[in-house]
Specification:
This protein has three helices and three strands, in the order E-E-E-H-H-H. By secondary structure, it is α+β, with helices and mostly antiparallel strands. Strands 1-2-3 form a three-stranded antiparallel beta sheet, sandwiched between helices. The relative contact order is 0.16.
Length: 110
């Protein structure tokens, strides 16, 4: 791809959630970046820092033709699935439709 075709602006999609261990995951599906930190704020800041560093390092390359191949850098399909499930849950909450706040365990076989 011609370096002239590199976008001047790029929308990126990110999501975050708390794990069952209490840590926070923040992920950017358009650059395939992910962090895990003890708090929501720390995870958001760490992901922001990773995004800035990644984009700066890509743009600082001498091989300008590679930029269009490195921006964007899509995440695996399961990260997209998580993103859209979270987006759908947020949309349902916006409509005041109850959304499960935790996963209900299935009954164990005897």
């Amino acid at each position: 791809m011609d370096p002239k075709n590199v976008p001047k602006k790029m929308d990126i999609r990110c999501y975050g959630y708390r794990t069952r261990h209490g840590t926070w995951i923040a992920s950017c599906i358009d650059l395939s970046l992910m962090v895990e930190r003890p708090s929501r704020e720390e995870s958001l800041q760490a992901l922001h820092d990773q995004i800035v560093l990644y984009v700066q390092s890509v743009l600082d390359t001498e091989d300008k033709e590679s930029i269009s191949y490195l921006l964007p850098r899509p995440a695996p399909w399961h990260d997209y699935l998580i993103y859209y499930v979270i987006s759908f849950a947020v949309w349902l909450r916006h409509l005041n439709i109850p959304v499960f706040k935790e996963i209900i365990p299935l009954p164990q076989a005897a």
